[in-house]
Amino acid sequence: MNARLTLVVVGWLASACTPSSAVRPSSAEALAPEDARFTALLAEDWEKNLREYPTLATFVGDPRYNGLLTDESFEAIARRKQEQRELLERVKGIDRSRLSPAQRLNYELFRQEVESGLEGQRFPEEYLQISQLGGVHNQMAELAQGTPKRTVKDFQDFVKRLRAVPVMVDQSLALMRKGLETGVTPPKVTLREVAGLIRNQIVEAPEQSPIYRALFEGFPPSLKAEEASLRAEVATALREAVVPAYRKLLVFFETEYSPRARESIAMSALPDGAAWYAYRVKELTTTDLTPEAIHQLGLAEVKRIRAEMEKVKAEAGFQGSLAQFSQFLLKDPRFSFRSKQELLMTYRDLTKRLDPELPKLFRVLPRLPYGVLPIPEYSEKTMSAGYYMPGSLEVGRAGYFFVNTYDLPSRSTWMVDALVLHETVPGHHFQIALAQEQGGVPAFRRHGYYGAFIEGWGLYAESLGAELGAYRDPYAKFGRLASEMLRSIRLVVDTGLHSQGWSREQALAFFREHSGEPEHDLTVEVDRYIVNPGQALCYKLGELKIQELRAFATRELGARFDVRAFHEVVLRAGALPLPVLEQQVKAWVTQAPLAP
To answer: What DSSP string runs through 537-563?
Structure first.
């Protein structure tokens, strides 16, 4: 799926938006002819995408395709690629000079994304159907969390999807076999836990299935009379269709796929891999920075943040080395959670303390609420510390921050503040919910994915904690710096692995030297970068750009600078490529009114 249709947030693959794709006129006047042509093209393209990607339609609140799954046959993939080539010709047929200013921005963004998608057709991303981070093996369990569950038809539609799982698995097997033929697979070392993840979905009793549990959690009381029959339908579909398909997947994985997966770890080792990595870096970061430039920037940031850590260590009154301070923070019982429930309640408490502080820094707040849940047991072992799942007003689904409770001794209290700020408010939930609620912009922008903006905003949000009453002691302050250090290490390690010939052990060693992360977490991190090249670069590059723009606006406006107005400018248009964001902020600075 094209990046503009898929919102990937810290390792999760959900999309969320609103269903309308038309650009709403700002007045009662009819759209100008060229604006109308372009609006019609956007609406037609969005409708096609909802048909082609039914789970996207589900997450955005359009119920028309709730009983279907995406056709991932070779024929469908080839057809979609051809349609994308035809789409570019249609976009070129729009006369940009005759568009209104607002539509020109839409045009530039849409054309850029269509062209980028065409460039990406060179690389067979579709062959990579499974990894420790997710894929065909847990798609239905994740879908069960986000699917609507309000009517009998909602459940019956999901049963249709369960019945389609054998076809989904067969199509994935065909793509993975093609990947084996062409040498395009994940590195073997990262697949060591995947068989166990598949087994988590293979149950003797349907009621034990993660899919079943997620689907019936919070069952609506209004459907009590139909509950027994709906449970029976789901159980039968799991027993007859889903579990046998996953057993087939497991046999293939253990006997064919994993044994023949590649030994190399770098994306540059794949066919056309160096160009593939360069493409991903450009696509995900929305910059023209080379991997070498990013690597050097990461090294500089690691050095700078280490000096800041030394200051916080001194503030805490700790006499040993930085490495000893990190071990103290990981092992001292005062920073431990006594139970998973205590961990969840600590995270939930902070989110509710942050909410009333937000008007200090923001004039516009999202309407959509959010909650905090544990990462499901079937995937927690291979997941990072947390991730955000977007919500949808149309579906009736709140946004959710999923926090990892696996390996409880490795989860420390001083990590809480930075992670909450990043994933909930004013981070991912705040930014993504606001983007969904934007009026006057087409759908492809309300739920577009620009990794450097979205993850950059999340990391920038962590820096706002002190202004919102977080980071109340030196240990939480150190937690913020540790989080920033992690994102800086990513610049070094990701580029080291994929463009500079680093081994996995080199990457792990660099992590151990510069991070206080628990061994389990740093292993998860390195393996994440190996299977998802370039994504880890988004955080720091985006944050640095937003910080740079805030400093520019502060310097240029002086006493006229209003941080709430600045944040409104950054967020009001939804996610943007970093160069476009810079244009927007600098235009605002130029037009800002003079102080009275």
So the answer is: GHHHHHHHHHHHHHHHHHHHHGGG--H
